[in-house]
Automatic annotation (TrEMBL):
Domain Glycosyltransferase 2-like: 7-119
GO MF annotation terms: hexosyltransferase activity
Transmembrane segments: 293-313
Name the record gives this protein: Glycosyltransferase 2-like domain-containing protein
UniProt keyword annotations, A-Z: Membrane, Transmembrane, Transmembrane helix
Transmembrane recorded as keyword: yes
Transmembrane helix listed as a keyword: yes
């Protein structure tokens, strides 16, 4: 009997809209040559829609391949992802978003790299994007060749935001399980936290050149009340731990600079409606951008004035000042 080399883990919560396609994109690539080397685990975070019925139909047909777990209560996205690694039998775990799907031949390509026996800590999948509202595929940043890394700073300086989608990374289970990730729970960036920690102890990584997975963007789950803007800033807060893990300060500063260069655009496009949420977002920005002149005189005023044309500036400025003390 062959060892399971790859677990495709799908964390889901009320994922009925696209979950079947995610599962089918894996099953369609399994054959007599790789079937014994791959398993699918679905961890359902107490869904209230038809997610369970959808999964059980697949599980009944593919009982040797699919394992289904349903949490009694919603434990949060991060802990649900961690559950997948603790339930996985595979040597490597690919966390596939419940609204994403694999490209043709992705499974065999991943298995081929695993079988090299290099013990990469991270396999980075090249991703494409499908914009949900318009059903339009966005251009793929295809690489000319595969890439290998043996230095954590080199990897992050090259990959930057390529790792933002959880479906973009495959992690060696042994490396994940030796981490202490409790401090990151609740940030919704558990894969970035683990990636940063894994690369600090096992700096070997591999990047696939071809598109391996399609990630849906424009999902209503992330768009409510400025959630996308907030998540981007929490991402920055999470990776600030690089400074404690032996990464070069310039590596983290690259992320800060990139985020700041897009900050004004994101404020305009993604600002929340509520004043209290804007205060929270300003508080997240302040530690990273406080020394930049344009943050105080352009970004913050835009955050609080944009969408509120009738607000009087002085009361708003005083309220901001009190909240940020």
């Amino acid at each position: 009997m062959k060892d399971i080399l790859l677990t495709v883990g799908i964390p889901t919560f009320n994922g009925q809209a696209y979950l079947a396609q995610a599962i089918e994109s894996v099953l369609s690539q399994l054959n007599q040559n790789n079937l014994a080397e791959v398993e699918i685990i679905i961890s359902d975070n107490a869904s209230t829609d038809d997610t369970e019925q959808i999964v059980r139909k697949f599980a009944n047909t593919y009982s040797n391949t699919i394992k289904y777990f349903k949490n009694e209560v919603n434990v949060g996205f991060d802990r649900n992802v961690d559950y997948l690694f603790r339930k996985a039998a595979g040597r490597y775990v690919h966390v596939l978003g419940d609204d994403d799907y694999l490209s043709d031949n992705a499974i065999d390509k991943i298995l081929g790299v695993i079988k090299r026996g290099v013990d990469y800590g991270i396999l980075l999948l090249n991703i494409g994007f499908l914009h949900i509202p318009t059903n339009t595929e966005l251009p793929v940043d295809k690489l000319d060749t595969e890439l290998e890394f043996k230095n954590k700073d080199e990897f992050f300086l090259w990959s930057k935001w390529r790792t933002a989608a959880i479906s973009s990374i495959v992690v060696r289970k042994q490396d994940w399980l030796c981490l202490s990730l409790d401090q990151y729970m609740g940030n919704q960036w558990i894969h970035i936290s683990a990636l940063m920690e894994v690369m600090a102890i096992n700096s070997k990584a591999y990047a696939f050149p071809d598109k391996m997975v399609t990630v849906r963007v424009g999902n209503a789950r992330w768009n409510n009340n400025g959630n996308q803007l907030k998540l981007g800033l929490i991402h920055l807060k999470v990776i600030s731990r690089m400074l404690e893990l032996g990464y070069k300060p310039d590596t983290f500063q690259t992320f800060v600079n990139d985020r700041f260069n897009n900050n004004l655009k994101d404020i305009i496009l993604l600002s929340p409606v509520s004043f209290n949420e804007r205060i929270k977002i300003a508080s997240l920005m302040k530690p990273f951008f406080r020394n930049r002149f344009t943050f105080w005189f352009l970004h913050l005023p835009t955050l609080f004035i944009f969408g509120y044309p009738f607000l009087i500036l002085k009361p708003v400025a005083l309220a901001i000042k009190r909240k940020l003390k």
